[in-house]
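task queued by scheduler; priority normal; single chain, no ligands, no partner chains; default sampling; output format set to structure tokens
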Amino acid sequence: MIRLIQRYLLPFLPEWFAARARTIVPASIRASYRRASNDVFLLSFPCAGRTWVRLLIFRTLQHHFGIERAAGLNIQPLIDESGDLSAPRIIVEHDGNPHERTPSDLLSDKNYYRGAKVILLVREPRDQIVSWYFEATRRQKIAGNESLNFNGEISEFIRGKRGGLETLLEYYNIWADNMAVPDDVLIVRYEDLRRDPLPQLRAIVEFIGFGSIDDKILSEAIEFCSMENMRRLESSGRLDDAAFQPGDRDDRESFKVRRGVVGGFRDYLSESDQEYVEKMIGEKLRASFLSNSSDAR
């Protein structure tokens, strides 16, 4: 019965519900929970390209299974519809909603993921914090989080204690200290995915457990999930997801799919803001898995 609830009920619950539940249930109880050996978590701090990766996985599996349905972001029902009972359960989370927390309030205990596989999406912090700024100022009503809406300038935002740059850097540091907790961790760098998506997508689907997918299917998924086509899908409302719509159709910065430009932070951060961010990264960031995300330099 527990496994049926896990597989067929939990994937349909809102992500915020699962995240809030994890903050209420004591760590000792969560750690004792035995999860399936093929559970796969897709995790990130906001604005690391998670929507893009979800659609890439969805489109790939949709063609792999030969299922006709509108494109969407909810992967698990697609897997369930395939009838493949050996397929993994894919759980998409923001990992305790770190963007709502101060650095000291972040969840440092990752035993929740013990016995599971984790895909951790990461991004160059300067680009990520700028993208998160526009998400926090333009899209919280769409996401149903109006209480998190930020009304200040980007200089204030990146220096903020709750969900600002320090929180982002500490989130990565915590994961750097916990890489051995899950059974396996796949680091997916946004910059690598932008530069050369085919081997990155192949690595993702193979890590999940689908190792026999033809490159033609992967290439079609990549073409379908191009930034240009995703913007068209968002503008037209053709994607089967209520949150995948702009906050204001007349404001390009309010779109879920904004620019996707590596190094685009330079267009938004002043010289003093860039100096601050560089200083903070140099002083605070320990996570070595970001060392290759240097295309923006």
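post-processing summary
- Strands lie at 40-43, 90-93, 117-122, 184-189.
- The radius of gyration is 19 Å.
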